[in-house]
Write a structure and sequence with these properties.
By secondary structure, the chain is mainly α. It has helices at 3-33, 36-56, 60-71, 81-102, 104-107, 116-120, 124-143, 149-171, 177-187, 190-202, 217-252, 254-268, 272-290, 294-321, 323-329, 338-352, 357-362, 367-392, 394-420, 427-443, 451-472, 477-494. The two termini are 25 Å apart. The relative contact order is 0.11.
Length: 495
């Protein structure tokens, strides 16, 4: 099993363990403990911070994904790359925080009634912004050195466990909502920053180095160009899952943003395998492009697309089949979000089905195409949301996501094909989708039962039949290998 499979598998284990904790947090506890407006407050603050955080790193994160292989030199402090990043990130943090403070009233504005709750807690946005900028910087520096799993462990599992504890403390009356919000914001970055710094320190990776000995005028121009493209790409990368919450708040209010957040959450489960893959695929693709190793890139592309389709198909089938169960868990206030769950699930499935295409295009000599595609994505998200939310409400926001993803994902796959001749899809992708549709249709025949037995039986039947079909028809060698290893492990343990 290669580095991509190992790191992706580790990331998946951490991520889906985190999914269980996240489901408890967002799917069960939060809707029943917090009001929709309070949930909207948390998500709008986070979304604003994550969007502005991309401005604050000045494109350095995206730039480093492409340029770090040329700096990589462990005997020479990676030619001062860490020190260069510290300077750029510090400058970007100062710039964006000042910009935010000068425009805070406009940032939290809404076309509907003013939200006193958001205004009262708007001071948390600069704090969360600073934490997000720096945790992103340190996480990315660890990632480009082929350790994507640590950041996934911290973000997808540790942060969620701490948040679970905070929710329990609030529900128990130990802390107030104001205290909860402050601790929630701190939890988004500070613990992870400390762990990442300890990890880098133990590896001797915190020396700033002397980048000026390596960065000549030609390299400086390349860094500036890549950072400019990276700035646009970074903002656009988070636009799909952050901008819509801000726009929902702007057009129809903070309470509706809370309802949208909970519905959106169930659809984002589809994104998790793609996130785990992307974090390790970026340095692998960048190194392969440096060697002009098109075979490795093509293998990464085909296998990533196929395996993401396998996992995504199973997740979409399971979520849609359990839609009635989801709304048996949620309070009545969230009953109108079924279409949001389905549409966001489809949107994320389409996005993941392009595999490592973002990493491949973004680290190639054709990275400027990736930048323009991401800019197009942002424009489509803003325009489609502005047109559809006032007319269709929450469903319009979710439909806007589908439209933006279909257009940009299709163009990305087309550009890679035209520029490299690489095409990742075969008959097996169509077979997987057909199998998923047939399994979903069959799940409709399962009679309704009490909540927990229904979820367990329905999900179990879908997973077993789907896994058996993938294995029997040999639709994915990687998935087949994982199943074989799992079976062998169980046999060893059971004698």
């Amino acid at each position: 099993m290669g580095i991509v499979q190992k790191q992706t598998l580790k990331g998946l284990i951490y991520s889906y363990t985190g999914v269980l904790v996240g489901f408890l947090n967002m799917g069960i506890l939060a809707p029943n403990i917090f009001s929709p407006e309070q949930i909207g407050l948390k998500q709008v603050i986070y979304s604003i911070a994550i969007l502005l955080g991309q401005v604050g790193n000045l494109g350095f994160v995206e730039m480093s994904n492409r340029i770090f292989p040329w700096f990589r030199d462990s005997r020479n402090d990676n030619r001062g790359f860490f020190g260069l990043g510290l300077i750029i990130t510090a400058a970007g943090t100062l710039f964006v925080v000042v910009l935010l403070l000068l425009n805070l009233d406009h940032v939290v504005a809404s076309q509907t009634e003013r939200s006193l709750l958001l205004e009262e807690h708007s001071g948390l946005i600069p704090l969360m912004l600073i934490l997000i900028i720096w945790v992103t910087f340190f996480d990315n520096y660890v990632k480009v050195q082929f350790n994507a799993a640590l950041g996934t462990l911290l973000r997808d599992l540790v942060v969620r466990i701490v948040n679970l504890l905070l929710i329990i403390l609030f529900f128990s009356g130990v802390i107030t909502f104001d205290a909860y919000m402050l601790l929630y914001v701190i939890n988004q970055g500070l613990p992870s920053i400390v762990v990442l710094l300890i990890y880098l320190g133990r590896r001797g990776e915190l020396a700033p180095g002397r980048f000026w000995l390596f960065v000549d005028r030609k390299m400086a121009r390349q860094l500036l160009s890549l950072s400019a493209y990276g700035l646009v790409t970074g903002i656009s990368a988070v636009a799909l899952y952050a901008l819509d919450k801000v726009l929902v708040n702007y057009y129809i209010g903070l309470e509706m943003a809370g309802i949208y957040t909970i519905s959106f959450y169930f659809g984002t489960i589809i994104m998790i395998p793609g996130r785990s893959l992307a974090k390790i695929a970026i340095p692998v693709a960048a190194d392969a492009w440096k060697r002009n190793d098109l075979f490795t890139i093509g293998d990464l592309y085909r296998r990533s697309c196929l395996n993401q389709v396998v996992v995504g198909s199973l997740l979409v089938t399971g979520i849609v089949a359990n839609l009635d169960n989801i709304y048996r868990i949620l309070p009545e206030a969230y009953a109108g979000g079924g279409a949001v769950i389905v549409l966001i699930s489809i949107s994320n499935f389409i996005n993941n089905a392009t595999g490592a295409s973002v990493s491949i295009l973004g680290t190639s000599a054709y990275y400027h195409y990736h930048t323009w595609l991401m800019l197009l994505l942002t424009i489509l998200v803003v325009a489609a949301n502005a047109l559809l939310i006032p007319v269709m409400g929450l469903t319009g926001a979710a439909l806007a996501s589908v439209i933006a993803v279909v257009i940009t994902s299709g163009l990305r796959v087309f550009i890679i094909y035209r520029k490299t001749g690489l095409w990742p899809y075969g008959w097996s992708v169509a077979a997987i989708i057909i199998i998923s549709a047939l399994i979903y249709a069959g799940s409709l025949l399962i009679p309704s039962m009490p909540l927990i037995p229904d979820i367990v039986l329905r999900s179990g039947v879908i997973t077993l039949i789907f896994g058996a079909a993938i294995y029997y028809f040999r639709l994915s060698d990687d998935i087949r290998l994982i199943i074989d290893q799992a079976v062998a492990f169980i046999r060893e343990r059971t004698g």
